């Protein structure tokens, strides 16, 4: 009887192990399915992230392509094609209603925009895109046949209060859609501004530069899209001169030229400089002072150094009004030129963006055209040159922005079109040697910012100017050449945003 009871207990437990195994297998299967689903979701997320990142960087590549090509120094610059209008200060700008496209691939811009329409343009400006905008086509591969960035197109346009998203920049209650906005980097704080204008033509100050909008669309093969936008403005050196020749700080010695042809003339464009495309001397004539100094005492020093029979050779004025000669006056300097500290910052910026940085051998003088001098300098291709030490221009004519940190020597046949900054070390002297027909058109600025040991001064030191040995034809203020040689070293990014894109 006992044996029979044992068998019944065993029979009642039959299949329990199988049931446990099945339940365990079911749980493991559920976990496996969940892991597979999670893995698939993670893969999809990673794929979406990769596509989003790829399209983002492709659009960024397009924006940076355009930002780089806006620089006039870029070998593939679009600057001349973008800036086609002339403001009331005879400075080129991009007019409202204009657009410029850079697009990838061959064919026409019409075909490119038909495939990927610029729907954002109408949203911003309230009108349809231009039928025939300016364009540049890019090859889809480089010289090594490596595919390039996958952006479709980049558009460059001016900015208005309307296109900015209906932002009333000047607070006048009007959302202007016809006047381009400018950026004033010298304002406190720096700000976007609506410049004065006549009709729809702006008249910005020398510290205001037009704001441009750079918009790029990228579309990947999987259909991922990204539309990004910069607002940019050219970063400039803000060189605004009050006179044809400016002597900052106290004047130690001034010896004017005795030759009859020599003039220092503040009338804008009164010299014989080569023409600057898109710019001409103002009419009626505009005037700056002939020689600007720091104080009345310095003005007296300069006048006493001008030969008595040459006083009438120093002419200038204010605005449209000429003044009596000799025109030598105390002047105010803008923030960029106002102190040794600001000047040192300026020339450091110029040095870092110069076409050539050259220096004489220890204790010597660097000569025009010496080792390291940039090639290709011409009236149509001015250069930026930084000479770290003494410099002798010789019987040559140069074009561009020239910085000399020591003594600047020139001769009767020496000439320059553009800007010369002589920022000395405590011994700055101009030496004019011999007669000739050399001429300086633009502006010359002289200041001593460091002592003999090379330490920065708190205030400008003493400057000396000696051209008593002759001097050539003289110095003539020329705003066209002053602007022409201030090539922006970069375009400052003012803002950045991503825009939802729809092809409809």
Overview features:
504 residues; alpha/beta; 2 domains; eleven-stranded parallel sheet; six-stranded mixed sheet; 8 helices; elongated
Write the layout of secondary structure elements.
Layout: H1 2-12, H2 16-69, H3 79-82, E1 85-86, E2 92-93, E3 100-104, H4 109-115, H5 119-125, E4 134-138, E5 151-158, E6 182-184, E7 191-193, E8 197-198, E9 201-202, E10 208-210, E11 212-219, E12 225-235, E13 243-247, E14 251-255, E15 263-265, E16 289-293, H6 296-304, E17 314-315, E18 317-318, E19 321-322, E20 328-330, H7 340-352, E21 356-358, E22 365-367, E23 383-387, E24 390-392, E25 397-404, E26 408-411, E27 415-424, E28 429-434, E29 439-448, E30 463-470, E31 474-477, H8 479-484, E32 490-499
Parallel strand pairs: 3-4, 13-16, 13-29, 14-30, 15-17, 15-31, 16-20, 21-23, 22-24, 23-25, 24-26, 25-27, 26-28, 27-29, 28-30, 29-31
Antiparallel strand pairs: 1-2, 3-5, 5-11, 6-7, 6-10, 8-9, 11-12, 12-32, 18-19
């Amino acid at each position: 009887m006992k044996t029979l009871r044992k068998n019944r207990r065993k029979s009642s437990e039959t299949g329990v192990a199988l049931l446990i195994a099945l339940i365990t297998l079911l749980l493991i299967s559920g976990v496996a399915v969940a892991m597979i689903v999670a893995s698939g979701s993670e893969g999809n997320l990673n794929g979406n992230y990769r596509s989003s990142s790829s399209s983002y960087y492709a659009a960024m590549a397009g924006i940076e392509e355009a930002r780089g090509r806006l620089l006039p120094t870029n070998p593939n610059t679009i600057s001349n094609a973008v800036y086609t209008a002339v403001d009331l200060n005879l400075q080129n700008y991009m007019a409202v209603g204009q657009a410029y496209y850079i697009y990838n691939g061959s064919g026409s811009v019409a075909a490119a925009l038909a495939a990927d329409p610029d729907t954002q343009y109408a949203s911003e400006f309230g009108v349809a895109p231009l039928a025939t905008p300016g364009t540049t086509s890019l090859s889809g591969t480089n010289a090594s046949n490596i595919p390039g960035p996958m952006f479709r197109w980049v558009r460059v346009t001016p900015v208005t209060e309307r296109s900015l998203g209906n932002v009333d920049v000047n607070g006048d209650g009007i959302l202007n859609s016809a006047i381009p906005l400018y950026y004033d980097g010298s304002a406190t704080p720096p700000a976007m501004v609506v410049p004065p204008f006549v009709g729809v033509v702006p008249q910005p100050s020398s510290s205001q530069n037009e704001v441009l909008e750079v918009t790029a669309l990228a579309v990947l093969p999987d259909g991922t899209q990204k539309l990004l936008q910069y607002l940019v403005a050219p970063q400039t050196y803000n060189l605004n001169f009050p006179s044809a020749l400016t002597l900052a700080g106290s004047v130690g010695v001034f010896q004017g030229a005795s030759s009859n042809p020599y003039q220092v003339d503040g009338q804008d464009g009164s010299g014989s400089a080569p023409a600057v495309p898109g710019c001409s001397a103002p009419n009626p004539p505009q005037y700056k002072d002939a020689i600007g100094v720091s104080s009345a005492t310095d003005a007296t020093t300069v006048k006493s150094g001008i030969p008595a029979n040459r006083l009438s050779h120093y002419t200038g004025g204010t605005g449209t009004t000429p003044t009596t000669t000799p025109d030598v006056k105390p002047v105010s300097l803008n923030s960029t030129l106002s102190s040794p500290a600001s000047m040192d910052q300026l020339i450091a910026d110029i040095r870092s963006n110069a076409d050539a940085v050259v220096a004489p051998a220890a204790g010597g003088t660097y000569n025009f055209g010496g080792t390291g001098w940039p090639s290709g300098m011409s009236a149509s291709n001015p250069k930026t040159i930084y000479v770290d030490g003494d410099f002798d221009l010789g019987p040559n004519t140069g074009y561009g922005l020239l910085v000399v940190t020591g003594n600047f020597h020139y001769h009767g046949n020496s000439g320059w079109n553009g800007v010369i900054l002589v920022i000395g070390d405590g011994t700055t002297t101009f030496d004019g040697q011999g007669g000739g027909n050399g001429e300086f058109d633009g502006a010359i600025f002289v200041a001593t910012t460091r002592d003999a040991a090379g330490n920065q001064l708190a205030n400008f030191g003493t400057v000396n100017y000696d051209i008593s040995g002759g001097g050539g034809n003289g110095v003539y203020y020329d705003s066209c050449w002053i602007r022409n040689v201030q090539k922006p070293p970069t375009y400052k990014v003012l803002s950045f945003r991503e825009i939802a894109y729809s092809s409809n």
